[in-house]
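FAQ: What does a multi-protein file look like?

Like this. Sequence, then tokens, then the next protein.
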Amino acid sequence: MLLQHGAESKLVSDICCRLGVALGLDSVEISLSASSMVITTITHQHCITTARRCPDRGTNMRVITEIQRILIMTEKALLDRHSVKKRLARLSPDRYNRWLVAVMVGLSCASFSRLAGGDFPVFFITFVASFFGMLVRQEVAHRHFNPLVNFGITAFVTTLISSFGAMQEIGNQPYLAMASSVLMLVPGFPLINAVSDMVKGYVNMGIARWVMASLLSLATCLGIVAAMNLTGIWGWL
């Protein structure tokens, strides 16, 4: 669950080892890869090894925080192994309302355009483009498309909408809307985790996450270029 929801490798390893020791195991050894993990538990000179697939379910810090709470309560002897199992089974990746997320993402991208010197018409165009782009991203993700396809389609739609302002020359710097509206597609969390993993000794995991973040950036660029080819608006490059 930690690996699926975006925790860094060091945190995953530490929590697994600490939880195992808190529940009475002698030791826990763990090997991580980008989409799976292998865990070996040792108790009373008996060794059990299991492998599990860990498909990506999107970043969700609530799940990670709740697992850390369970760990702390277990270490304080407030939970036994049955209680831990029940609490883990009840964990669900609750998410904000999709409309609220779209509005807040639109406002954040629009704020970037304002900070970069755009006036309120540019702010409005950026908000509209980012808002509808986020709705497209959520809908494509809901249908379980590959994240690369998701990012490419979202970048295409967002750039297509924001380029309307440049075609009509709306605002003092209409090209700012095209640059600011796609900022929601910057894979910041994977890039931060990639660097953190490599610094902390999990080089393979760091490289895997870095490559995935780079591919997401490439898909975003392809979507932007495709939209610019369609509209013929290249001014902000």
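And here is the next protein:
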Amino acid sequence: MDIVCLDLEGVLVPEIWIAFAQESGIEELKKTTRDEPDYDKLMRWRIGVLKEHGLGLRQIQETIAKIDPLPGAREFLDELRSLTQVIIVSDTFSQFATPLMKKLGWPTIFCNTLEVADNGEITGFKMRCEQSKLTTVRALQSIGFETIASGDSYNDLGMIKAGKAGFLFKSTPKIIQDNPDIPAYENYDELLGAIKSRLG
């Protein structure tokens, strides 16, 4: 049985941290997993920047409330879910993801959790497991699923390469160039066609 594992940010919705960087005027927060392969290092750095500027969860959630899925994302996801099981596997956090899941029609998402103080300051984060995306697809494979995965960043490469099929979507020229063995697509029709061709 097939199951499709999709990244969230950059694939179905805009990058939350880029949107927040634009909203807050803090340019340095535009750095994402497309730029920094080490997610732990990236998040610790982000939390430091937030603390320095006196910003917390509330301000980020206010930005997220204004974010809509990428054009065509909801339709793509609806069609894909009519064909096979789909899980969004993301390194984002439940406190960020819930409003976006509502706009996407409540798909299943596996993500992580922020540690937040009573005053709203983000003090840390708790990852669901080590190498969460790769670990997730391997766990699914261990219970009889064949995985097909798609994402756009360095932290998606493990799950993309581990399954029976994997695709880059709206990725960077550098990641595409460094991974010539992974088909890369720029629009949902192409990605849906590629996934359909590997189902069953």
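Q: Is there any per-entry metadata?
A: Some entries carry free-text notes. For the entry above: Residues 16-64 form a domain with the thrh gene product, domain 2 fold (CATH 3.90.1470.10).
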